[in-house]
């Protein structure tokens, strides 16, 4: 009977120790990964920032908030934006940021990821409204840099560093796409006409220069005539040449009335 009583007491102690360890050990020891930091609160008051590695806490007195220091990604949902020239477009973007001060990220703002996401959406609409459609399509890097600077400045008190902001897609209405296509076609036609007219002008200029040269050097006309005959003789067809002196044609011109 005594052995049975001792065994019972031993089992009670073992069960008590197991329960104690299962309850208190998870509260006393926490393991922080290399990219994590633990913000420790003691009785609700900030105590310190610990990690990485093993940290020791006072059970039921210390509370810890884990903060991930890796670069996080926020997909800014598609926003309807009115540009400076009153064109409605749908734009979405991606924001890359990371926590540089775990204490501020936990204490200064509630749910820093959600707060940064909302700020990115608001800033995206605000900044894109300051640009015209052509600038939005052509100066993407400039717009990305400006959005990043604004978000980074506003999230700095939260201990957050915005790494990059990238505007992904700019979706235009179908009517605007057709208008831009017509504009591009008209621009190509305009450039083609200008190039054609410029070619005609240059050709006419060269002909005038050639005429002035021939007028000053009559022998040049004779050489040009002989060159033309040589080019024609290279063909397979048979031609008959009847060279006439240029002065011979002067007699057929009508005389001016005095």
UniProtKB/TrEMBL annotation:
It comes from the Bacteria. The keyword Transmembrane helix applies. It is a single-pass membrane protein. GO terms for cellular component: plasma membrane; side of membrane. Keywords: Membrane, Transmembrane, Transmembrane helix. It is found in: Membrane. The keyword Nucleotide-binding does not apply. CDD domains: SPFH_eoslipins_u1. The chain crosses the membrane at residues 6-25. Residues 27-184 form the Band domain. Belongs to the band 7/mec-2 family. This is Band 7 domain-containing protein. It comes from Rhodohalobacter mucosus. The lineage of its organism: Bacteria, Pseudomonadati, Balneolota, Balneolia, Balneolales.
């Amino acid at each position: 009977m005594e052995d049975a009583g001792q065994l019972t007491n031993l089992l009670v102690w073992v069960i008590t120790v197991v329960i104690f360890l299962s309850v208190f050990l998870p509260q006393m020891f926490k393991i922080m990964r290399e990219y994590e930091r633990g913000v420790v609160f003691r009785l609700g008051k900030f105590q310190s920032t610990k990690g990485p590695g093993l940290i020791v806490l006072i059970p039921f007195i210390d509370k810890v908030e884990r903060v991930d220091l890796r670069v996080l990604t926020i997909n800014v949902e598609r926003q309807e934006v009115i540009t400076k020239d009153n064109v409605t477009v749908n734009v979405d973007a991606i924001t890359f940021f990371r926590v540089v001060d775990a204490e501020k990220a936990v204490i200064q703002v509630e749910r820093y990821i959600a707060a940064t996401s909302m700020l990115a959406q608001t800033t995206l609409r605000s900044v894109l409204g300051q640009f015209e459609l052509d600038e939005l399509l052509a100066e993407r890097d400039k717009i990305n840099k400006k959005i990043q600077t604004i978000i980074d400045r506003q999230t700095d008190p939260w201990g957050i560093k915005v790494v990059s902001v990238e505007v992904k897609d700019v979706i235009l209405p179908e009517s605007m796409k057709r208008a831009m296509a017509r504009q591009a076609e008209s621009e190509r036609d305009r450039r083609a006409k200008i190039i054609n007219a410029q070619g005609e002008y240059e050709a006419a200029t060269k002909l005038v220069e050639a005429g002035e040269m021939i007028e000053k050097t009559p022998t040049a006309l004779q050489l040009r005539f002989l060159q033309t005959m040589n080019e024609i003789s290279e063909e397979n067809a048979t031609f008959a040449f009847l060279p006439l002196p240029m002065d011979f044609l002067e007699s057929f011109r009508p005389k001016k009335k005095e």
